Protein backbone atom coordinates (compact mmCIF):
# COMPACT_ATOMS: atom_id res chain seq x y z
CA UNK A 1 0.00 0.00 0.00
CA UNK A 2 1.38 3.39 -0.96
CA UNK A 3 2.09 5.64 2.01
CA UNK A 4 -0.11 8.73 2.08
CA UNK A 5 1.48 11.96 0.94
CA UNK A 6 2.65 14.38 3.59
CA UNK A 7 0.10 17.15 4.03
CA UNK A 8 1.10 20.67 4.98
CA UNK A 9 -1.27 23.55 5.72
CA UNK A 10 -0.19 27.07 4.86
CA UNK A 11 -1.86 30.48 5.03
CA UNK A 12 -4.19 30.86 2.07
CA UNK A 13 -2.22 33.63 0.38
CA UNK A 14 1.05 31.70 0.68
CA UNK A 15 -0.64 28.58 -0.68
CA UNK A 16 -1.88 30.38 -3.76
CA UNK A 17 1.42 32.18 -4.33
CA UNK A 18 3.13 28.77 -4.42
CA UNK A 19 0.37 27.24 -6.55
CA UNK A 20 0.33 30.05 -9.13
CA UNK A 21 2.96 28.68 -11.59
CA UNK A 22 1.01 25.42 -12.10
CA UNK A 23 -2.53 26.50 -11.21
CA UNK A 24 -3.80 26.58 -14.80
CA UNK A 25 -1.95 23.47 -15.98
CA UNK A 26 -2.02 20.89 -13.18
CA UNK A 27 -5.16 19.11 -14.42
CA UNK A 28 -7.47 20.22 -11.62
CA UNK A 29 -10.89 18.89 -12.64
CA UNK A 30 -12.82 21.64 -10.86
CA UNK A 31 -11.15 24.30 -12.97
CA UNK A 32 -11.96 22.40 -16.16
CA UNK A 33 -15.62 22.06 -15.14
CA UNK A 34 -15.78 25.66 -13.95
CA UNK A 35 -14.39 26.98 -17.24
CA UNK A 36 -16.96 24.98 -19.22
CA UNK A 37 -19.93 26.00 -17.07
CA UNK A 38 -18.94 29.66 -17.10
CA UNK A 39 -18.51 29.84 -20.87
CA UNK A 40 -21.43 27.63 -21.89
CA UNK A 41 -24.03 28.61 -19.31
CA UNK A 42 -23.54 31.20 -16.57
CA UNK A 43 -21.80 33.96 -18.50
CA UNK A 44 -23.86 33.51 -21.65
CA UNK A 45 -27.05 34.17 -19.73
CA UNK A 46 -25.79 37.01 -17.55
CA UNK A 47 -24.00 38.89 -20.32
CA UNK A 48 -26.95 38.51 -22.67
CA UNK A 49 -29.18 39.97 -19.97
CA UNK A 50 -26.84 42.89 -19.28
CA UNK A 51 -26.31 43.72 -22.96
CA UNK A 52 -30.05 43.65 -23.64
CA UNK A 53 -30.39 46.96 -21.76
CA UNK A 54 -27.96 48.69 -24.18
CA UNK A 55 -25.77 50.16 -21.41
CA UNK A 56 -23.11 52.79 -21.98
CA UNK A 57 -20.94 51.31 -19.23
CA UNK A 58 -20.68 47.88 -17.63
CA UNK A 59 -18.71 47.58 -14.40
CA UNK A 60 -17.47 44.13 -13.43
CA UNK A 61 -15.64 42.97 -10.30
CA UNK A 62 -13.72 39.68 -10.19
CA UNK A 63 -13.50 38.82 -6.49
CA UNK A 64 -10.68 36.36 -5.82
CA UNK A 65 -9.57 36.65 -9.44
CA UNK A 66 -6.61 34.29 -9.20
CA UNK A 67 -4.95 33.87 -12.60
CA UNK A 68 -7.85 35.64 -14.30
CA UNK A 69 -9.72 32.49 -15.39
CA UNK A 70 -13.18 33.94 -14.86
CA UNK A 71 -12.35 37.28 -16.47
CA UNK A 72 -10.84 35.48 -19.46
CA UNK A 73 -13.98 33.36 -19.76
CA UNK A 74 -16.07 36.53 -19.61
CA UNK A 75 -14.01 38.31 -22.28
CA UNK A 76 -14.12 35.25 -24.53
CA UNK A 77 -17.88 34.92 -24.13
CA UNK A 78 -18.41 38.64 -24.67
CA UNK A 79 -16.25 38.58 -27.79
CA UNK A 80 -18.35 35.75 -29.23
CA UNK A 81 -21.60 37.56 -28.47
CA UNK A 82 -20.43 40.85 -29.97
CA UNK A 83 -19.09 39.22 -33.12
CA UNK A 84 -22.55 37.73 -33.60
CA UNK A 85 -24.42 40.92 -32.66
CA UNK A 86 -22.16 44.00 -32.91
CA UNK A 87 -22.73 46.92 -30.58
CA UNK A 88 -24.85 49.71 -32.01
CA UNK A 89 -23.44 52.28 -29.57
CA UNK A 90 -20.24 52.70 -27.53
CA UNK A 91 -19.80 50.48 -24.47
CA UNK A 92 -17.14 51.03 -21.81
CA UNK A 93 -16.33 47.77 -20.02
CA UNK A 94 -14.59 48.36 -16.68
CA UNK A 95 -13.18 45.24 -15.00
CA UNK A 96 -11.59 45.24 -11.54
CA UNK A 97 -9.68 42.14 -10.43
CA UNK A 98 -9.05 41.58 -6.71
CA UNK A 99 -6.85 38.90 -5.15
CA UNK A 100 -4.56 38.56 -2.15
CA UNK A 101 -1.96 36.57 -4.10
CA UNK A 102 0.53 38.79 -5.90
CA UNK A 103 1.75 35.81 -7.95
CA UNK A 104 -1.76 34.93 -9.11
CA UNK A 105 -2.63 38.52 -9.94
CA UNK A 106 0.59 38.99 -11.90
CA UNK A 107 -0.33 35.99 -14.05
CA UNK A 108 -3.83 37.40 -14.51
CA UNK A 109 -2.44 40.68 -15.81
CA UNK A 110 -0.17 38.86 -18.28
CA UNK A 111 -2.85 36.46 -19.53
CA UNK A 112 -5.54 39.09 -19.94
CA UNK A 113 -3.18 41.44 -21.77
CA UNK A 114 -2.19 38.63 -24.14
CA UNK A 115 -5.82 37.69 -24.75
CA UNK A 116 -7.04 41.20 -25.48
CA UNK A 117 -4.29 41.74 -28.05
CA UNK A 118 -5.06 38.43 -29.78
CA UNK A 119 -8.79 38.85 -30.43
CA UNK A 120 -10.35 40.82 -33.31
CA UNK A 121 -11.09 44.48 -32.64
CA UNK A 122 -14.66 44.87 -31.45
CA UNK A 123 -16.21 48.12 -32.73
CA UNK A 124 -17.62 50.46 -30.07
CA UNK A 125 -16.05 48.51 -27.18
CA UNK A 126 -13.60 50.20 -24.80
CA UNK A 127 -12.01 47.97 -22.16
CA UNK A 128 -10.36 49.11 -18.92
CA UNK A 129 -8.83 46.62 -16.48
CA UNK A 130 -7.49 47.40 -13.01
CA UNK A 131 -5.76 45.06 -10.57
CA UNK A 132 -5.72 45.31 -6.78
CA UNK A 133 -3.82 43.13 -4.31
CA UNK A 134 -6.50 42.70 -1.67
CA UNK A 135 -7.43 40.16 1.00
CA UNK A 136 -10.98 39.25 0.02
CA UNK A 137 -11.79 38.36 3.63
CA UNK A 138 -11.67 42.11 4.34
CA UNK A 139 -14.09 44.85 3.26
CA UNK A 140 -13.62 46.11 -0.28
CA UNK A 141 -10.93 48.75 -0.85
CA UNK A 142 -12.08 52.34 -1.00
CA UNK A 143 -12.72 53.64 -4.48
CA UNK A 144 -13.93 50.37 -6.03
CA UNK A 145 -16.95 51.16 -8.20
CA UNK A 146 -20.11 49.20 -7.56
CA UNK A 147 -20.59 46.51 -10.17
CA UNK A 148 -23.28 45.46 -12.58
CA UNK A 149 -21.76 41.98 -12.39
CA UNK A 150 -19.56 40.30 -9.80
CA UNK A 151 -17.63 37.11 -10.55
CA UNK A 152 -16.40 34.90 -7.73
CA UNK A 153 -15.41 31.45 -8.90
CA UNK A 154 -14.12 28.64 -6.65
CA UNK A 155 -13.59 31.20 -3.89
CA UNK A 156 -16.59 30.74 -1.58
CA UNK A 157 -15.03 27.76 0.21
CA UNK A 158 -12.39 30.04 1.72
CA UNK A 159 -14.78 32.43 3.47
CA UNK A 160 -17.58 32.35 6.05
CA UNK A 161 -20.90 32.71 4.25
CA UNK A 162 -22.07 35.79 6.12
CA UNK A 163 -18.96 37.84 5.33
CA UNK A 164 -18.85 36.63 1.72
CA UNK A 165 -22.42 37.67 0.96
CA UNK A 166 -22.05 40.93 2.86
CA UNK A 167 -19.16 41.74 0.51
CA UNK A 168 -21.16 40.64 -2.53
CA UNK A 169 -24.05 42.94 -1.61
CA UNK A 170 -21.62 45.80 -0.92
CA UNK A 171 -19.93 45.28 -4.29
CA UNK A 172 -23.07 45.23 -6.45
CA UNK A 173 -25.23 48.01 -7.78
CA UNK A 174 -28.97 47.68 -7.13
CA UNK A 175 -30.24 44.94 -9.48
CA UNK A 176 -26.64 43.83 -10.08
CA UNK A 177 -25.86 40.14 -10.52
CA UNK A 178 -23.30 37.87 -8.90
CA UNK A 179 -21.99 34.71 -10.57
CA UNK A 180 -20.71 32.43 -7.80
CA UNK A 181 -19.27 28.93 -8.20
CA UNK A 182 -17.88 26.51 -5.65
CA UNK A 183 -16.75 22.98 -4.97
CA UNK A 184 -19.92 20.99 -4.26
CA UNK A 185 -20.33 19.91 -0.64
CA UNK A 186 -20.63 16.29 -1.82
CA UNK A 187 -17.09 16.45 -3.19
CA UNK A 188 -15.84 17.97 0.04
CA UNK A 189 -17.49 15.22 2.07
CA UNK A 190 -15.98 12.55 -0.18
CA UNK A 191 -12.53 14.11 0.09
CA UNK A 192 -12.72 14.08 3.87
CA UNK A 193 -14.19 10.59 4.19
CA UNK A 194 -12.43 8.56 1.48
CA UNK A 195 -9.92 5.91 2.50
CA UNK A 196 -7.14 7.53 0.46
CA UNK A 197 -7.46 10.63 2.67
CA UNK A 198 -7.06 8.80 6.00
CA UNK A 199 -4.06 10.82 7.13
CA UNK A 200 -5.76 14.05 6.22
CA UNK A 201 -8.88 13.09 8.18
CA UNK A 202 -6.75 12.53 11.26
CA UNK A 203 -5.35 16.03 10.94
CA UNK A 204 -8.78 17.49 10.25
CA UNK A 205 -10.15 16.40 13.64
CA UNK A 206 -8.18 19.20 15.23
CA UNK A 207 -9.17 21.85 12.71
CA UNK A 208 -11.99 24.33 13.23
CA UNK A 209 -12.98 24.54 9.57
CA UNK A 210 -13.98 21.59 7.42
CA UNK A 211 -11.42 21.11 4.67
CA UNK A 212 -12.66 20.70 1.15
CA UNK A 213 -9.26 19.93 -0.27
CA UNK A 214 -8.28 23.18 -2.02
CA UNK A 215 -4.61 22.78 -2.77
CA UNK A 216 -1.97 21.11 -4.91
CA UNK A 217 0.94 18.68 -4.88
CA UNK A 218 4.28 20.49 -4.79
CA UNK A 219 7.57 19.47 -6.41
CA UNK A 220 8.47 17.47 -3.29
CA UNK A 221 5.31 15.40 -3.59
CA UNK A 222 3.59 17.00 -0.59
CA UNK A 223 -0.07 17.97 -0.53
CA UNK A 224 -0.16 21.71 0.14
CA UNK A 225 -3.50 22.88 1.47
CA UNK A 226 -4.95 26.28 2.31
CA UNK A 227 -5.47 26.72 6.05
CA UNK A 228 -8.92 28.29 5.78
CA UNK A 229 -11.41 26.08 3.93
CA UNK A 230 -15.10 25.43 4.58
CA UNK A 231 -17.47 22.79 3.24
CA UNK A 232 -20.59 24.92 2.78
CA UNK A 233 -23.85 23.04 2.26
CA UNK A 234 -25.75 24.38 -0.75
CA UNK A 235 -28.97 24.97 1.16
CA UNK A 236 -27.08 27.00 3.75
CA UNK A 237 -25.46 29.08 1.00
CA UNK A 238 -28.86 29.95 -0.43
CA UNK A 239 -30.36 30.66 2.99
CA UNK A 240 -27.60 33.12 3.92
CA UNK A 241 -27.83 34.80 0.51
CA UNK A 242 -31.57 35.33 0.91
CA UNK A 243 -30.96 36.68 4.40
CA UNK A 244 -28.76 39.37 2.84
CA UNK A 245 -31.59 40.38 0.51
CA UNK A 246 -30.37 38.55 -2.59
CA UNK A 247 -32.56 36.72 -5.07
CA UNK A 248 -31.24 33.20 -5.63
CA UNK A 249 -31.28 31.94 -9.21
CA UNK A 250 -31.50 28.31 -10.25
CA UNK A 251 -28.75 26.14 -8.80
CA UNK A 252 -26.52 24.45 -11.37
CA UNK A 253 -24.69 21.25 -10.43
CA UNK A 254 -22.29 18.92 -12.23
CA UNK A 255 -21.94 15.20 -11.56
CA UNK A 256 -18.84 13.52 -12.99
CA UNK A 257 -19.77 10.84 -15.53
CA UNK A 258 -17.77 8.20 -17.39
CA UNK A 259 -18.32 10.20 -20.56
CA UNK A 260 -16.26 13.07 -19.15
CA UNK A 261 -13.14 10.95 -18.75
CA UNK A 262 -11.96 9.93 -22.21
CA UNK A 263 -8.25 9.33 -22.37
CA UNK A 264 -5.47 11.54 -21.10
CA UNK A 265 -4.13 13.96 -23.70
CA UNK A 266 -0.59 12.70 -23.17
CA UNK A 267 0.65 15.97 -21.74
CA UNK A 268 -0.25 15.35 -18.13
CA UNK A 269 -2.95 18.00 -18.12
CA UNK A 270 -5.70 15.58 -17.15
CA UNK A 271 -7.94 17.07 -19.81
CA UNK A 272 -8.97 14.23 -22.10
CA UNK A 273 -11.50 14.10 -24.92
CA UNK A 274 -14.49 12.73 -22.99
CA UNK A 275 -18.03 13.14 -24.31
CA UNK A 276 -19.60 14.37 -21.07
CA UNK A 277 -21.70 17.31 -22.27
CA UNK A 278 -18.54 18.94 -23.59
CA UNK A 279 -16.67 18.62 -20.27
CA UNK A 280 -13.24 17.01 -20.63
CA UNK A 281 -11.54 15.77 -17.49
CA UNK A 282 -9.21 12.95 -18.48
CA UNK A 283 -8.59 9.97 -16.23
CA UNK A 284 -7.93 12.17 -13.22
CA UNK A 285 -11.69 12.48 -12.83
CA UNK A 286 -12.26 8.73 -12.48
CA UNK A 287 -12.39 8.63 -8.67
CA UNK A 288 -15.18 11.24 -8.77
CA UNK A 289 -17.54 9.40 -11.15
CA UNK A 290 -21.07 9.60 -9.73
CA UNK A 291 -20.21 12.48 -7.38
CA UNK A 292 -21.51 16.04 -7.54
CA UNK A 293 -18.33 18.08 -7.66
CA UNK A 294 -19.33 21.58 -8.83
CA UNK A 295 -22.12 24.01 -8.04
CA UNK A 296 -22.92 27.47 -9.40
CA UNK A 297 -25.51 30.20 -8.98
CA UNK A 298 -26.50 33.60 -10.28
CA UNK A 299 -27.57 35.89 -7.42
CA UNK A 300 -29.28 39.23 -7.94
CA UNK A 301 -29.19 42.16 -5.57
CA UNK A 302 -32.56 43.79 -5.00
CA UNK A 303 -33.08 47.49 -5.42
CA UNK A 304 -33.61 47.96 -1.67
CA UNK A 305 -30.84 45.87 -0.03
UniProtKB/TrEMBL annotation:
One of its GO terms (biological process) is methylation. It holds the Pfam family Methyltransf_11. Keywords: Methyltransferase, Transferase. One of its GO terms (molecular function) is S-adenosylmethionine-dependent methyltransferase activity. The keyword Methyltransferase applies. Residues 62-177 form the Methyltransferase type domain. This is Methyltransferase domain-containing protein 13. It comes from Elsinoe australis.
